[in-house]
Design goal:
The complex is a heterotrimer of chains A (94), B (483) and C (498). Helix content of chain A is 83%, strand content 0%. Chain A is an all-alpha fold and 94 residues long. Chain A has one domain: Helix Hairpins. The longest helix of chain B has 35 residues. Chain B is an all-alpha fold and 483 residues long. In chain B, 77% of the residues lie in helices and 2% in strands. Chain B has a two-stranded antiparallel sheet with strand order 1-2. Chain B is built from 19 helices and two strands. Chain B has a domain of 197 residues. Chain C is mainly α. In chain C, strand 1 and strand 2 form a beta hairpin. In chain C, helix 1 runs antiparallel to helix 4 and helix 14 packs antiparallel against helix 17. Chain C starts with a helix and ends with a helix. Classes of the chains: A mainly alpha (94), B mainly alpha (483), C mainly alpha (498). Chains B and C meet through helix 16 and helix 17 of B and strand 1, helix 5 and helix 6 of C.
Chain lengths: 94, 483, 498
């Protein structure tokens, strides 16, 4: 049977794929950002799946640290993209 | 003295934070921080030269859990180049920005860019590479958007989206590596990674992510608009440094970590894309109507040259010939870094003088600013690859390696690239010879022109004639080339 | 002899440093600029004189500078470099004087003389190059230094002519680079050695060497204006007369021809080159170019263009001499390097004088010009007669040796007709000019006459240079057997080669 680790990893890959497709196909900034965040979520899920070693064993903390850092980076990048998008809209309205 | 490796990252970081608080003195703070960091980078190079690769574990946490910094010949030389370019551009930027609002925003971001660059070059593990790559991308995007016009913002948004995608693909590769080998440390991985499916997929992902970041054809489409709409010192840093470090990471991963995973076919693929980049980029540069756009496309072409080295380095047997090819790649990257930054800084001077950078209307400006035109000529010589520039030597070894590895087909590509480069550089220089009497004063905007001149002299004279030490240095002190 | 070892570098610096200084001289400061120019020229002359002495006594004069693994910058003085360096130095001095006079009241003189000095530096560096890498380096630098001179006037056609020049020469540069790098790859770094280096490296594949030779000849042939790479030369006539004089007599064209001589004699070795079948190939191209250039010259009415095609034809004599196996032909080729330089520069000086003083640009306007400008036209006539090959002017000596050498090598059956045909064609396009100039009555009014109040027909700086060089042409021919004459040097070189 498929182990839990493999299941979650595949889910992560699947999310990544969905996000990737959406990024490449859409041109609207907001949609792209959401898609990129889904990509990110997919990668983070892979990391979390790696960390899991079974019910008895303590989870590996290193991937957790990586995921936290990754989330911070993703949030900052999203925030910056949104700020730029708003400024562009403001310029377009002038 | 081990601390130099920390100071080179910490000082710009402190400088960045202080310049947010004390924005009135931001320019002075930036100059001081960068000069101190430059001194630190010189110390690091000296240390590597004397003792070999330098390691440092942050906070004394050992690798596996902690962040390790490491400097070897390749990274320390690139670090030195980066600090020289940054320092020159910092002097330049002090005079370039006249609007106080922009100044206040520029300096903290600029210093963060420096932090990211230095930390990236000194990173010793994969995740640190990811983090610093992101930091670099974010600062670069913010700096690009500083021009605050529609074109710049659109370019910045596109740069951010594509960059983010590239980083995420890279991160996926990192995840797979960790899944397979349980460590992210570069040195440990260089011994562990074998040719197995997991590593191969990771290799593919990480390469793809880095190709996006280094703007290799056909993933280069975000670069021209971003580099052309950014303010001049930012364009200089982007073309000369930001793109280069992505190539650096790729090189280190290929030669160090994935040396058993990569196949000659994959190297040939990248080399072919590089060859297309050379021709396509040079052709587009010839068609460009604006000076900075032309320079941006020229960067696309020059990155192509760097990638052509890859199949050759892979194909050559270990020994002095391979070492020479590797050092030639480094020399070409260095020369281009200096030359392109000098070019962009000069383009900035021209743009400020006459309000635009359209090539067709350049005539009077070129004659009114003789020193700037001279700098463009010097850096143009380096971009074409004529003696006595470092690019000439790089081209020599590129052709030589092609013949020695039996891959002669790169030679016509190099020839065509050189001819096209000649065409687009001299298209500009032709304007310096218009009819009309007067030639302007030699030095017009000293604080801006002199840094550009120094950078161009580095590229065209110093690296061309005085770089002999570099060969031994790289061959002896690069971790992976030895043994 | 430590001083002697640094001599090549000093010779380079004697024009490089004044050149760089001249760039910074303000436009109005004629005195400083002229002083720098003449100081550089005379210093160089002195240093070259020392070098001639040293080479004659076979003292080694060499400088090496390591650039990269396997790549060394080598400056080396041997008999062949001495010939070219002396030619360049003497003619540079003369041209400098001419240019000072010619460009009076012209703008951008500091820029002009700065690049002028850089051009000579590159030429001298090329002459003193001791290996292929150094040669290629200075070859490209020469292109860079001469581009601003061609584009100097700044008009649209000047910039266009300069761009054509650049395309041809940098394209040729790439071909030369590929050939040289390829050779380095299979044979290691090649120092120039009398008698050639490659003949002793028996493991090299002959076909690869043939391809390498082809690349190098294409690369060198562009500058030497061999057919079909000669197209830039007539276009470059748009440059001011001192530049045309320098380019055609001393710097660019000679650099290409000199390179061909170096490659055949000091890289391949003339006997080995013959064994590989390279010499007939070169000879064929040279012979074709000789005839082609002369034929095209016939149809040109514009004086400088006619002289340009004449150059294309005449420089190929050097290649022809190189392509015939035998010391006499070698002597003929090498001595023509000097003779053609002196004669052609006279012709261009004269053409420049006609244009400056009288606004005469075309042959059809030259009726009776001999009476109006006797000194210039006398110089022109001597040089033209030398070109045709009439004794005792220098040109005759070169053609004589080439003919003898061809007979000696058994190649007489195709070389002699080429020589005869070319002399006849030369006569066909030069003699009518001389006839017009001396024997036809003058036109009523010259196109654009400039008044000159001095004793002679024109300013001294413009008049004396062609007279001096024409006299040299005459002397080289009359006193060819004297020691230190070009002929004696050529004989010396040939002796050391075979």
């Amino acid at each position: 049977m498929i182990s839990e680790q493999l299941l979650y990893s595949l889910a992560g890959v699947g999310l990544f794929g969905i996000g990737l497709r959406a990024t490449l196909l859409h041109h609207m900034l907001l949609l792209r950002l959401l898609a990129l965040n889904v990509c990110g979520a997919g990668v983070f899920l892979i990391f979390i799946a790696i960390a899991y070693g079974g019910i008895e064993v303590m989870a590996d903390p290193v991937p957790h640290a990586l995921v936290l850092t990754g989330i911070v980076v993703a949030v900052s990048a999203t925030a910056m993209a949104l700020a730029l998008g708003r400024r562009l809209e403001a310029l377009n309205d002038e | 003295m081990n601390d130099a490796i920390i100071w080179v990252i910490a000082i710009p970081l402190l400088g960045s934070l202080i310049s947010i608080i004390w924005s009135r003195y931001a320019s002075m703070i930036a100059i001081i921080s960068n000069l101190l960091a430059l001194a630190a980078s010189i110390i690091i190079v000296a240390q590597v030269y004397q003792y070999g690769p330098v390691n440092h574990a942050l906070g004394s946490w050992q690798s596996g859990l902690g962040i390790s910094l490491r400097a070897d010949a390749l990274s320390s030389i690139l670090l030195l180049m980066s600090m020289i370019v940054i320092s020159a551009a910092t002097f330049y930027a002090g005079a370039y920005f006249t609007d106080p609002v922009k100044r206040a925003r520029f300096w903290p971001l600029w210093l963060m860019l420096v932090v990211a660059l230095n930390a990236l070059l000194l990173s010793g593990d994969l995740f640190n590479l990811y983090v610093t790559l992101e930091l670099l991308g974010l600062s670069a995007v913010a700096l690009t958007a500083l021009s605050d016009n529609r074109a710049a913002l659109q370019a910045a948004i596109r740069y951010l989206s594509i960059g983010l995608l590239g980083s995420l693909v890279f991160l996926a590769g990192v995840a797979l590596i960790y899944m397979g080998h349980g460590t992210l440390d570069l040195v440990a991985l260089s011994n562990k990674v074998q040719a197995e499916p997991l590593s191969q997929v990771a290799f593919g992902l990480m390469t793809a992510g880095l190709l996006i970041k280094s703007a290799l054809f056909p993933l280069h489409f975000w670069l021209p608009s971003a580099h052309a709409s950014a303010p001049a010192p930012v364009s200089a840093a982007l073309s000369a440094l930001v793109v280069k470090v992505a190539v650096y990471i790729l090189l280190r991963l290929w030669v160090d970590v994935f040396d058993l995973v990569l196949t000659p076919l994959s190297a040939m693929l990248l080399g072919t894309l590089g060859a297309i980049a050379v021709i396509w980029g040079s052709w587009q540069a010839l068609q460009a109507q604006r000076l900075k756009l032309m320079a941006a496309y020229s960067t696309v072409a020059q990155i192509g040259y760097l990638f052509i080295f890859l199949p050759l380095i892979v194909a050559l047997p270990e020994g002095p010939v391979q070492d020479a090819a590797f050092t030639a790649l480094l020399l070409m990257a260095l020369t281009h870094g200096f030359a392109k930054s000098a070019f962009f800084l000069s383009a900035g001077v021209i743009q400020q003088y006459c309000g635009h950078d359209r090539i067709a209307e350049l005539g009077g400006t070129a004659r009114a600013l003789p020193l700037t035109t001279f700098v463009i000529a010097l850096s143009g010589v380096a971009l074409i690859g004529l003696p006595p520039s470092g690019t000439f030597l790089g081209k020599w070894y590129l052709i030589s390696s092609s013949f020695q590895a039996g891959q002669w087909w790169w030679v016509p590509v190099i020839a065509i690239g050189s001819v096209l480069a000649t065409a687009y550089v001299f298209r500009i220089l032709g304007y310096a010879f218009g009819p009309g009497e007067s030639v302007g004063r030699v030095l017009n905007r000293g604080r801006e022109e002199i840094p550009a001149l120094l950078l161009a002299l580095f590229a065209t004279l110093i690296l061309g004639l005085g770089s002999f030490e570099l060969w031994d240095f790289v061959a002896q002190h690069s971790e992976f080339l030895r043994g | 002899m430590d001083f002697f070892d640094h001599l090549p570098l000093l010779i380079l610096l004697s024009s490089l440093l004044p050149g760089l200084a001249i760039f910074l001289v303000r436009e109005e400061n004629h005195l400083l600029r002229t002083s720098l120019n003449l100081f550089g020229a005379f210093t160089k002359l002195g240093l070259v004189g020392l070098m001639i002495w040293g080479v004659f006594h076979e003292w080694v004069t060499e400088m090496r500078w390591q650039i990269a693994p396997g790549l060394e910058l080598v400056l080396h003085a041997d008999a062949l470099s001495v010939v070219f360096v002396t030619l360049s130095t003497v003619l540079w001095l003369v041209t400098t004087i001419y240019a000072i006079g010619y460009l009076e009241h012209s703008p951008h003189r500091s820029r002009f003389f700065g690049f002028f000095s850089l051009c000579v530096t590159a030429t001298v560096g090329l002459a003193l190059a001791g290996n292929l890498f150094t040669f290629v380096l200075f070859y490209e630098l020469l292109t860079l230094a001469t581009y601003p001179l061609v584009a100097h006037k700044g008009s649209a056609e000047a910039v266009r002519g300069a761009r054509i020049y650049l395309t041809y020469t940098l394209g040729g540069g790439i071909m030369l680079l590929i050939g040289v790098v390829w050779l380095h790859t299979i044979a290691g770094p090649i120092d120039f050695q009398q008698g050639g280096v490659l003949s002793s490296l028996t493991h090299l594949d002959p076909w690869t060497l043939r391809w390498i030779f082809l690349f190098m000849i294409i690369g060198l042939g562009v500058k030497a204006a061999l057919f079909p790479f000669h197209g830039w030369l007539p276009q470059a006539m748009v440059a001011p007369a001192p530049v045309s004089a320098l380019l055609h007599a001393v710097a660019v064209v000679k650099a290409g021809a000199f390179g061909i001589v170096r490659v055949v004699y000091d890289v391949f070795g003339v006997e080995y080159a013959d064994a590989l079948g390279l010499l007939p190939f070169l000879g064929a191209i040279a012979a074709f170019t000789i005839v082609y250039g002369s034929v095209k010259a016939l149809s040109q009415d514009h004086l400088k263009r006619r002289l340009a095609y004449s150059t294309i034809s005449q420089v190929s004599y050097i290649a022809l001499g190189t392509a015939i196996l035998g010391p006499l032909a070698t002597i003929g080729g090498i001595v023509h390097l000097v003779h053609q330089g002196v004669m052609k520069i006279t012709l261009f000086f004269a053409a420049g004088n006609y244009a400056e003083t009288l606004g005469v640009h075309h042959v059809s306007e030259m009726d009776g010009i001999g009476r109006r400008m006797p000194a210039t036209t006398m110089a022109f006539s001597i040089a033209a007669l030398g070109m045709i090959g009439i004794p005792p002017i220098a040109g005759f000596i070169s053609k004589w040796y080439l003919g003898l050498g061809a007979l000696q090598a058994g190649a007489g059956f195709w070389v002699i007709p080429v020589l005869i045909a070319s002399s006849l064609l030369n006569a066909a396009y030069f003699l009518p000019i001389l006839y017009r100039a001396w024997f036809k009555p003058a036109m009523v009014k010259w196109p654009a006459e400039k008044e000159h109040s001095g004793r002679w027909e024109m300013p001294g700086a413009l008049m004396w240079p062609p007279v001096i060089t024409a006299t040299l042409a005459l002397l080289f021919g009359l006193f060819a057997a004297a020691p230190f004459s070009p002929l004696e040097w050529a004989t010396l070189i040939a002796g050391r080669e075979y």
